[in-house]
Each structure stands twice: as structure tokens, then as C-alpha cells.
User: Fold these one by one.
Assistant:
Number 1:
Amino acid sequence: MNDATIKEGRYLYCAVSIPDRESDFSVTGVDDEPTALIAIDDVGLVVHECNSLYDTDEVDLLRKWLLQHQQVVDAVGACFGTPLPFRFDTIIRGNDDRVREWAHEQADGLSRHLDTLSGFWEYHVGVTVEERELEAGLEARDEQLQEITTRIDESETDGGTNFLLEKQYKQRLAVLKRRRRDERARTLCDRLADIAHEVHDRDTGQRSIDLTDSKDDEDDRMTAQLARLTLLAHEDREEEIGDILDDVAVKPGVTVRFTGPWPPYTFTPAIGDEQECKNATN
Amino acid sequence: MRPTKRDDDAVVDLLDVILRDGAVLEADVIITVADIPLVGLKLRAALAGMTTMTKYGIFEEWDWRYRHRARAEITEESHSHSKNTNE
């Protein structure tokens, strides 16, 4: 916590449909605060009382808060079905009545989004391939690489020509590897797109903030990222997605990571303005 | 294969998603991540590739001033809002 106090506020975790259900729900939330469910007709909002923002320069603490946030949203999902998760550290000024007032204003939008997302979850797919598998057989199929190899064999071992040819070889190999990787990724993407409601290709390079303790190791340099995808899919299609990934995982040198089901963080709208179709990854 | 939630790397990956995504609520009474200077700053620094510079203290003073000012604004807004509500 920090010194930016709010007189009275409610930290918002998520909204969820609660038709004909008891609105009795409480788990431990961010900063070990007890959560509560505020029912507004058939929509429930999970909150905790707070009077300060959650700001820290300690990565461990931020990681703990994010995990606690996720644990609450996860528990809500397990209890009531797909929640509409709010962004971390979304706080509404005021008390429970102010939350109800705001929720009434947004009732149509919240209900519509919850209906749309009902039964849908977010899944993450990461596929890596060993570099040597990506290279396998490329020279046998590419005339240009074969020609460069022949010229390398004919040139003086330590000469300048040899050096340049080696460089040419590496460049051509890199192009072919990239093409092969893109082709495989596209094939996987197309197959998954037939089953999932939405497939997002995630930017593999950037994380918002480094929340890991790990450093680069040798393994990272020996493997290449083939695909890093985020899927919005109905829970009934989960098995089919797994089957497709099994097909990919049996190929030599390939490792597949399939995680979920997560609350649909990536596929949530902006609520309360005209641009409700906002999506953070677009 | 079946999806898992027990993969440590996957959780770290998810935390980044939680920090960046989730429904954004647009209303006067809402304070969102956009108002939180440090997290916001870290996001921007990472995206702009300035992480290293921040790490070595180049932006520390600016960071401090930025956060201090933003916190003051938020506190002020909060107080004026509660004042208006009370009126």
C-alpha cells in the first residue's frame, strides 16, 4: 500500500452472473483483505473494502497481489461460472451503495458481456521447437544452400571468401528456418481458429514487467518459440484443443505448454464508454 | 493433453496478463491502473525499452516526482469527490 489514501473505496475483482443463487461468497483477497459479493439483481460484484491504492516498487509484493487477485477471480469462476474480470487495481470510490449505484447504471452492459462470455475461458498455448529440429533436412531441400556449401568446400579454409560464404550460409539458413517456423505456426493457428472463438497471437518479445526470478540459460538459446497464443474457447471444446496440441507435441524436438482455463482477461471489453468492443491485444 | 494451472511459468505469464488486461471501467468514480504511477511507469518503461535506464537510476528522480504528483492528484480528487458526495 502507499500514501495515496482514498477516504472510502471498494477494490473490484470481477462481475459474475448469479441467477437464483445464494450471494454468500468470501475468500481472502489482495493484501489479505476479506472479499464480499455485492448482488445487484442477477449480477454479482466481488469487492473488498479499501482506502488506498495498491502501488509498490517491490516486485515480490506486486507478484503476491497479482496472485491474490487471480485466486479470487478463479474462486469466483469455480463457484459461479465464467466471470468478467476487471483489471488489477480497479477501485471504485465510495461504499457498497455507490458500487450498487454504479452497477445499476451499467446493468445492461454487464449482463450482456456476462451472457456473451458464459462458458468461455481463456487458454494459453506456447510451442517451442529445438533449433536443430528446425534446421533438419533444410540443406537437402534447398538448392541455394547446397550451392553455397559447394563453394565453401572449394574455397580456402581461412580465406576471406570462405568467411563471406559461411556468413551467406547462415543468413540463408536463418531465412529458411523462419519460413518453416512461420508455416508451422500458421498451420497450428488455423487449426485452433476452427475450434476457438478467438485466437490472438501474443507478442513474444515483451512482458510488461519482469515478474520472474529466472535468468537466460543455455536451453533458451537452443530452442525457438514457434507460437505463443491466447485463445478464447468454450469449455466444451477444451478436449479438441488438447487433441490438436497432442498432434503438434509428438513431432521431434517440440514442447507444448497448454494452460488454463483462465478467466478471460484478454477478451474483456471496456465498460462505461462508447467503445465497448475494446480489446487490449488489438 | 489437458490444460494445466500448475505450471509456474504459466502463472508468471498469467500475472503479466492480469497486470495488462482485464475489463477497463470508464467512470468518474473509478480509479484504474492508468492512475497508478509506478505500475504505469513500469509498463511504459518496459514498452519503450527503458528498463535498463530506469534500473540504473536515470529516471529515478523523474519517477519519484511523477508518482508524487499523481498520488497527490488522486488524493485530492478523492477528497473533493467525497466532499461533493457529502454535500
Number 2:
Amino acid sequence: MRPTTVVAAACLAPLALTLAACSSGTSGGAATAGGTSITVAASDDTNIQDLFQKVLIPDFEKKYPGTSVKLVFDLHGTNDQANYAKLAAATAQNRAPAMDVTASSVPKAAAAGLLATDTSKVTNLATVDQKVLAAGGPGAVPYRASSVLLAYNPAKVSNPPKTLVELLAWIKANPGRFTYNSPKTGGSGGAFVTTVLDSNVPAADRDTMTTGYDKALEKDWDPGWATLAGLNPYVFQKGVYPNGNNQTLQLLSSGQIDMAPVWSDQFISGKAAGTIPATMMAQQITDPSFTGGASYLGVTKASKNQDLAWKFIDFVLQPEEQAKVADKIAGYPAIALDKLPAATQAKFAGADTQNLRPGYNSDHATDINNLWDQNVPGK
Amino acid sequence: MKPSRRHRLGGLALASPPLILVAVFVGFPILVALAYSLGQVGGLNSTIGTIATEQSTVDAWYKVTFGAYRTVFADPRFQRDLVVTVLVTLATTVIVVVLAWGIALYVRLSDSWVAKILSALAVVPMFIPVVIASWAILTFYAADGFLRSIAAHVGIEAPIWGYTITAVVIGLVWTNLPFATLMVVSGVQGVPDALIEAARDAGASIPRTVVSIIAPMALVPTVIAGTFTAIGTLGAFTVPYFTGPNAPKMLGVDLADYFQSFNLPQSSVVMAIVIFIVASGFGGVYVWANYRSAASSGRV
Amino acid sequence: MTSLPTLPATTTPTTSDTTAPSTAALPRTAGRGRGPARLVGPVLSVAFVIVLGLFVLGPLLWLGVRAFATNWTYPNLMPDGWTLQWWNTVFQDPNLQSSVVLSFQFAFVTMVVSAVLCLPAAYAFSRFDFPGRRVFLIGLFATNAFPRMGLFVALASLFYAFNLMSTFLGVVIVHVLGTVVFMTWIPAAAFSAVPRSYEEAARDAGAGRFTVLRKVTLPLAMPGITVALIMSFLASFDEAQGTYLVGNPEYITMPTQMYSLVLNYPPQVAAVFSILLAIPSAVLLLLVRKHVMGGQLAEGFQIR
């Protein structure tokens, strides 16, 4: 063979390969023809992954034979920004996005008009709290709620703090026995940070920052940052903030710390599964309380499969599935409690499951991630 | 042999596929990112530009702004992390090169079982994915890890290295050791026995032989090992992410945080470019060393 | 290597185009038996081995034991009890199997694509003297100097525009980018180490250019090529961050899962996963261990 032929063949081979790969690559999108399969994207901790993977999706596929639901899951939501960017790009170009139903960054997507808004297709919406529904924005449907609690080891803590002031005093009196995860890695640490910040934010400013974005108001946080930085010498290993809700729980479970903010749902289901010792206790603090709130689902506006997507959301809001949300992950149901079986109702006796102190607007929450990183560790 | 013109063009054509790939998917994106860091939010940067917050932008293609660079460099967190990143890089590189040399000399001057075990041990980390290595190292040096456990048994309170810069350096040394060892061992092995024999016969001590005969001849592989270690360490993400403290952080972790958690992609890109510039400095040493060796053996 | 002893002391004994391969593994008879006893005492030698062994293997063993542990109380040196339940947890995870299969698919495709693109180039870098040869070689190296995370951030814009986000091809491109340097450099060094005189002899015997390549050059360069192939396979097999940014949510490979597993499951589950993920790497590298240690890898990183 002459050299030129070799060269030509060598150059053409990769080209052909690339073309072949291209043609097979385009079928990788979420929207498949026929409208019998949808993709659900969610981001949270493993308990939520199990909720979708092992309860909601199998139940849905059983009830509607021939349909298939695919879950794509981002633990911790560390890549929420990137995934949100992909959704925004797909919507702008009117391409089918990677997911039909999304459970992450929903209020943000709703505010940006990335969601389909015909929630009338969800018949089970009737008993959902109107305030919670409105807080999500156009198209966002609440499907569960949870709040952050203060968990402690009763063997070491006989008289747990009841208020934020008492908690801060306890941390300083017991060096190395408390920590919370960095806000960017999980909501339980985020709620602790938010609550400390809130103790110095005027109510009117807080309301503005809950629903909208006003960077100028973030100066209200300054005293809070100073308080948090002041805790550094007293938290675990003189300033170690773990990555994620679960790492905090592991530290608590293994006895390396005695107290930490935790998600109600993770704590209750962890105790049930045995990964958290049954002796551990948790309670809410007051003045202010730890934040909590609803989690939302939404149908992406550019989805080519909206009918089935709405059907899925409606299904999740059925009393039977809501009861499973309560049982499986100890999540507060999104629909009115009296629609649920009596046994499930009893579980939440005394808890105001639909009236939780909300966190900040998502842009402010992003700023909290950043400012915490800037102002707290190593200061 | 003087190659014909067609021959030379044929060579270029054969060599072109990876060059084109790298130009399109590395060179071009870096240029686009550079433009973004200088304030260009049109064209390919429009998607990222609409989502990001707090950007410095310009309104025409021929304008540039250094606003993003000013913001990043004015941030005390960045200054702190840049210093830490460079220090960690230098520490890691020095430790890795020293260890590699120790092993290489042992292997060169002895072929006992000790030498065989040492060279085999040093290559083990190459077999282990970095994610696992980082996590293994964290648990080993953690508050309830092996080091503290064994110290507690003999009644000593050992330091906690989990989530500290020490753990980051340990992890980076661990992951970079195999490549550096292979390079240096190969270089030291290449020193002809005749030269060492001659020096020894002339009465030179072993340290003297190492310094004046072996070291100069293994200089280039050492520089290569050092450069690759330094460049890999500068942009490291996985090891510091898993084993390091919340603050100070290495820039590789900052880069990811700014992009993913803080929604400040422009700052993230600025940091990437800063790391690239520092890495290019190390890369320059590498190119120089190779060129020097090529020149002295008459291959240029 | 006849010319070596006459080299000035400041040069390195690198292979030139006419020398045989495996310089690094050159037998060294004369230096044998001298030194170690006098250089460092036997006690120090053993101490060095123990410290290095603990440093390298300690963390792996500490993690490995955890995969079979029920619980572990500080400061005990052994777990409280033994169990296989964590292996069950992992094998029952529905995502595991698909991510394993996907990891192997990507690794194989990456290896093949990278070989097809880069091996001819490696040959060209070794055998042709075209304009800009050295600049291009260093240019390929520059792909290593830009931080990976930064590159993925920069790539994102381009991938949106080309519609490569969440596609198989997009992930393959990211993986191939990570292999270009050694898939070009190591085989190029291997080709260079094949003596020209062998090829010329075959030519004189009447063999065509392609036959010479197939019958003489390729077989002699094979150890270097094999090392490069396996390194590419493993680079793809271990790549996590880029796969996540580009492949999510369609393509979740094993290392990508590992990132979140480590932080979210009991430590024992992550230990099980670690063992599973390390097996393919260890097996493949053991296969080429001789060549890697023998200097094929080291040779590849010296530009000439």
C-alpha cells in the first residue's frame, strides 16, 4: 500500500467512527416516542432516592402497565446548578430536556418560567394548602415536607437546649461535641446557619428575602456570620464541618459528637433502619425555630411528554402514596392530614405539618453557601 | 535521510487527528472561557451568562474588562487558598521526588529483596482509583482511624489528620508516588555501571558518587516527575475534596464550589486560568529540561 | 548502548533512534552486591520498608476490612464483628449493575477511539519529521496543565452548542481527551525504540512499507502500545467528574456513583464498592506490570 493510501485510511477511520457514534448518540434524549415513558430528575439524600426508586415509581408502573419511569438522581444536589443550566438551555432551544418531571430547583425553575403551568390536571391538588402551593411559584406542586430538628444523644445530654440562645451556650460549654454540615452540602446544616442568621434579621426584610431577591438586605446577616465564626473553636475538631447531612448523622451515631441539626425525615427513618441508634432523640428549638418546608415537583415546559408527567404527579399526591411518603421516609404529607389513614395521622399528632418556617429564596440560599464559605471556616 | 515533502505532509496528516481533537475540545473551549473571564457573555457563553450571578460584562466584542479578575484577587479567601495551593504543591512535589529518589537509589545500588519490595510498593497506588484512595486515606488518619487507634493502644494521643491540610499532602503524595518513582527509577537505572564502577574505583564514596555521577544523569527524568506531580497537584480536586478541611481549601475545590454551589462561574473560570498560568510555569521547566537533554545529545 | 560510557556526565542516557528498547531495564551486573549494607544498615532498610508499606497499603487494608465489619469501635484494631450484609446491600442496588456495564462500555469505546485517533499520530511523531512536530507534542501535553475541573466548566458551553450534553458521544469525548497524552507519547517512544535497521533489512528483503509496519514495527512496539491501551482503559474507567458534568442524568458510571456513595452510605457500603471498583484496575495493571515497571511508561514521557 502506498503511503498516501495509509494516510487517507487513517484519517477517514476516525471520521466514520465519529459519524456512527453521532447517529447513535442522538437517541439518548429523555423523550421517547409513544408517550409511555418519562424521566424524573431529583436531587437530595439517599432516603429520597429510595422513596422514588423503591416506592413511587414501582407503584406508578404497576398501576399504569406499559408505562416506564426512569429516575435520574443527584445525591446532595451538588450539581443542581449544572443541571439547571442544562434545563434552561434545552428550554431556550425548545429541545426535549433531560427530564420530564423535576424535583430539584423547582421554585427557581417556576420563577424562571421553565415549568408547564396547567396544574389543573392534578386532581388531588384540592386539599393541598394554598399558601404552600403559591410559595412554589407557577407550576410547582408540593409533594412532601420536612423540617430540621435538633438531634442529641440523651446519654450525654440530659437537658437539651430549648431555644437558639440556649443551643449556642451549650455549644460553647461543650467544646468539640457539636457540628453541622456546610450549607452547600445539605439542608440540615443550611437550616442551622439560616436560623442563626435569622435571629438578627428584621421580620419585614426576612419576608422580602423569602419570596424575592434583594442583595442589599444581606447586610442584615453580618452579626450572624460573626456568631457562626465565633463557634469555630467549639465545634467538632475545632472547626470541621462535614460534607452532607449523612456525614453529620454518622458522627452523631458513632458518638464522635453529641448534638447536631438533622432532617426530621432522615432522623426518623435512620432510627427505623438501625443506622442511627434507637436511643437518640430529636426536638425542635424555638425563637427562632429551625427552618423547614415543602419539596416540590414540576413538569418541564419543554417536555414532549407532559400528559404522562402530570399523571405521575397526580399519582404521587394520592392519599395512598402520601401515606407511604409518611411511612417510608417520615416525610410530612403535602395533602391535608385527614385524608390519610388514621395510623399515619397519629404519627404526626401535634406536629403542624403544613405550617413550617420557610427558608430563603434560592438565590439568597446560594449566597448563603458562598458567604458561609467566605466568613465562617478558618476565621 | 532527508524526508521528501510529501513524506513530511503525510506525517502531519497522520498526526493531525489527536491535534484536531485537542484543538477543538481543549484549546477552543479555553479560549472561549478566557473571553468569558474578560467579560464576553455573547455567543457560546450566552447560556452560562444568563444563569450566572455577579458577572463583569462588556457590551462589544472588542472590549475587555478585568472586573472578574479584580473581584477574585480582592477576595481574601482566594488569596489564602492560592497561597495554600502553591505551598501544598511544593511540599507534595518535594516529598514525592525525595521518596522516589530514595527508592530509586536503593533499587540501583542493591538488588536485595528489600529493593524489590520497595519498588513494588511504590507502584501500588497506580492500581487504585483516586476516589477510593482519598477515602481510604481519610479513614486511616481520621479521629477513629488506624493511626490514632494504634497510638491509643500504646498510650499516646496521636494528632487527628483527617480533614486537615496534612491529610491532603499525604493523599497527594500517595497518588503521585508511582509515576514519579517509575520516572526516577528509570533514569537512575540508565546510569551505566561502568561509570559508577569507575568513580568507586577512584575512591569516591557512595554519597559522592550519587551527587556527582548519578544525580546529573538522572536530572531530566527527575524534572519530568516533578513537573507532572506539580501540575497534577495544582489542579487536584478529588483528594483535597475528600480529605481536606473546609478552610483553607485548594483551588481545585474552590473552582468546583464557585461553579456548582455558589453559581459564580465567572470567578470559577478566572481561577482555572490562574491555575493554568501557574501550571504553565512548571510546564516551562519541563520543556526546558527536555530541550536541554535533546540539545546535549545532538538531537536538535 | 555502546556509545554510553563516552557521554559527558551531564547528559542522560536516553535512547536515540538507533538503540534497542528497554534501556531502563538494562542489566547491571557490575554494581551488584555492593552498597546496601554499607549505605544503610539492615535495620534502617527494614524500617523503610515497613514505613512505606504502612503508608501505601495501610489505608487500603483499613478500608478493605471495613467491608466485612458489623461495627467498629474506636480504638479497637479489629471490628466488633464480621458480616457479609453490606455486600448484599450493594448487589441489591438496582443502579449498580447498569453503572458497572456502562463503565466497561465507556472504557472500551474510549480505548478503541483513542487508539484509532492516536496510534497513527504516535507513529508519525516517531518516524516523520514534519514541521512543528515538537511544538505539537508539547501542545498535547498542555492539555494536562489546564485544571480538569476548569476544562469541564469551559467545555460545558461548547457541549450545549454542539448538543453533546447527556450523550454517549459527549462522555466519550471527555474520556478520550484524558487519554490523548499517553496514547500518543508512550507508543511514539515505543516506535522510536524499534531499530530502523530492522525495518530497512525487511525492506531490502522486498517487503512493502505496510508489511514492514505490520510484521516488524508493530510487534516490536507492542509492549509500549499495550501499556498505553490499558492506561487509556483505566483513565476512562476511573473518570468521575467530567462524566458527571457531561453525562448526567443519562450516563452514571461506577466512579460517579462512588463519589456520592462515599458521602451518603454507611462506611461499610462504600468499602464494598471500593473493592469492586478497584478489582478491574488491579487486574489490568497486573497484566502489564512488567512493561510499566520496565520503563515503557517512563520512556514515553521524554520528548524527542
